[in-house]
C-alpha cells in the first residue's frame, strides 16, 4: 500500500509529524482540498480517499466561522467530485457533534439513526459535509462511508484542545482554565482506537453506511482536569474557572454497538487514567514540538476571555 498525504499545513498542521514515515510508501503533497485542479491530479492516482482534512476547533469557529464553512463544506465537495470522476472509494471522518448534545441525566446515547442537530459553526459545517457525502452516495453512486467519532486524545494533539491545553499550561506555569461549571461531559477515545476503527470501516464497512466510533469513555471536564492535576502533582483546585463557551454542548455520548457487532471492532486503550499519564509524559518529553505554538494559542484564548 502507498499513501499520499495531502495537507494544507495550516496553523494546526506540521510536516515534522510525518517526517519519519516519508519515503517510498508515504508521499507528501502540500496543498488545499479546495483547490479543484490539485485535488483532481492527486485523486487520479488513488484507489481510496480517507478524508480527515478539516477545521476542527469549536472556539475558533465561534470567533471566525468562515474557514469552517469554506474548508469543511467546499473542501468536502471538491473531494467528492474527484471521487466521483475517478470512481474512488471515499471515507469521511466526522464527529459526534453533528447530533447536538444530550442532557446530563438522559439515559440515551447517540446512535446512527438520531436526527442531526448541530450547535456550533464547526459542528454544523461537519453536518453539512456529512450530508454531501450521503447525497453523492445516493445520487452518483460514490462508494462512500462515514464515521462519527467522539473526543480524541493522545500525542501530537494541538495545544488548543482541552487536555493538551491544560497539560501545557501547567508545564508553563499557567493555571488550567475550565469553562462554565465544568460539568460538561465528553466521551474520550484514544487516537489509536479511533484509527483502528477507521481502518475497519474503510476496509470492511458497508457502502452508504454511517458508523459511530466511541469507547465508553464519558467523563465530565472537572473530573478530567482534576485527574491531570493529580498526575502532574498539583493540588486539585489549582485552576481558574473562566467564562463559558457560547452555545456550549452539555454532553456527548456514543453507542458504538453497530461498529462492534458488524465489524467486530474493539477499543484497546480503555484505561483512561493510564492514557492521561502517557499523554502527560508525551507533552513533558516533547516541549520542542508544542512550545513554538503555545504563546499564540493562549493569545487567541485571551482575546476570547478564556
Ligand atoms: O480550555 C478549555 N477549557 C474547557 O473547559 C478548553 C479548550 C475546553 N474546555 C471544555 C470545552 C469542552 O466541554 O472542554 C471540553 C472539550 O473541549 P475541546 O477540546 O475544545 O473539544 P470539543 O469542543 O468537545 O470538540 C472536540 O471533540 C469533537 C474536537 O475539537 C472536535 O474537533 C471533535 O469533533
From TrEMBL:
It catalyses: dTDP-alpha-D-glucose = dTDP-4-dehydro-6-deoxy-alpha-D-glucose + H2O. InterPro entries: dTDP_Gluc_deHydtase, NAD(P)-bd_dom, NAD(P)-bd_dom_sf. Coiled coil: none annotated. Pfam families: GDP_Man_Dehyd. One of its GO terms (molecular function) is dTDP-glucose 4,6-dehydratase activity. The keyword Lyase applies. Residues 3-278 form the NAD(P)-binding domain. Keywords: Lyase, NAD. Its cofactor is NAD(+). It comes from the Bacteria. Its EC number is 4.2.1.46. GO terms for biological process: nucleotide-sugar metabolic process. CDD domains: dTDP_GD_SDR_e. The keyword Lyase applies. Belongs to the NAD(P)-dependent epimerase/dehydratase family. dTDP-glucose dehydratase subfamily. This is dTDP-glucose 4,6-dehydratase.
Amino acid at each position: 500500500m502507498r499513501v499520499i498525504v495531502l495537507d494544507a499545513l495550516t496553523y494546526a498542521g506540521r510536516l515534522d509529524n510525518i517526517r519519519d514515515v516519508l519515503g517510498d510508501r508515504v508521499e507528501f503533497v502540500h496543498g488545499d482540498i479546495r483547490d479543484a485542479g490539485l485535488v483532481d491530479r492527486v485523486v487520479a492516482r488513488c484507489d481510496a480517499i480517507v478524508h480527515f482534512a478539516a477545521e476542527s476547533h469549536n472556539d475558533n469557529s465561534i470567533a471566525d466561522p468562515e474557514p469552517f464553512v469554506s474548508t469543511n463544506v467546499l473542501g468536502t465537495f471538491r473531494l467528492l467530485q474527484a471521487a466521483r470522476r475517478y470512481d474512488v472509494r471515499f471515507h469521511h471522518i466526522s464527529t459526534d457533534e453533528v447530533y447536538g448534545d444530550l442532557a446530563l441525566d438522559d439515559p440515551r446515547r447517540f446512535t446512527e439513526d438520531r436526527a442531526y442537530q448541530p450547535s456550533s459553526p464547526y459542528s454544523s459545517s461537519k453536518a453539512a459535509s456529512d450530508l454531501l457525502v450521503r447525497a453523492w452516495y445516493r445520487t452518483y453512486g460514490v462508494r462512500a462511508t462515514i464515521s462519527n467519532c467522539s473526543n480524541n486524545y493522545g500525542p501530537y494533539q494541538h495545544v488548543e484542545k482541552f487536555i493538551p491545553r491544560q497539560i501545557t499550561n501547567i508545564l508553563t506555569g499557567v493555571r488550567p482554565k475550565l469553562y462554565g461549571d465544568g460539568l460538561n461531559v465528553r466521551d474520550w477515545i484514544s487516537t489509536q482506537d479511533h484509527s483502528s476503527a477507521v481502518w475497519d470501516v474503510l476496509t470492511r464497512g458497508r457502502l452508504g453506511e454511517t458508523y459511530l466510533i466511541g469507547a465508553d469513555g464519558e467523563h465530565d471536564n472537572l473530573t478530567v482536569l482534576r485527574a491531570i492535576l493529580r498526575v502532574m502533582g498539583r493540588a486539585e483546585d489549582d485552576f481558574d474557572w473562566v467564562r463559558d463557551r457560547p452555545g456550549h454542548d452539555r454532553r456527548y455520548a456514543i453507542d458504538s454497538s453497530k461498529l462492534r457487532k458488524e465489524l467486530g471492532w474493539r477499543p484497546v486503550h480503555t484505561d483512561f487514567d493510564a492514557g492521561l499519564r502517557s499523554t502527560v509524559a508525551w507533552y513533558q518529553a516533547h516541549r520542542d514540538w508544542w512550545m513554538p505554538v503555545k504563546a499564540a494559542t493562549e493569545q487567541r484564548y485571551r482575546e476570547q476571555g478564556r
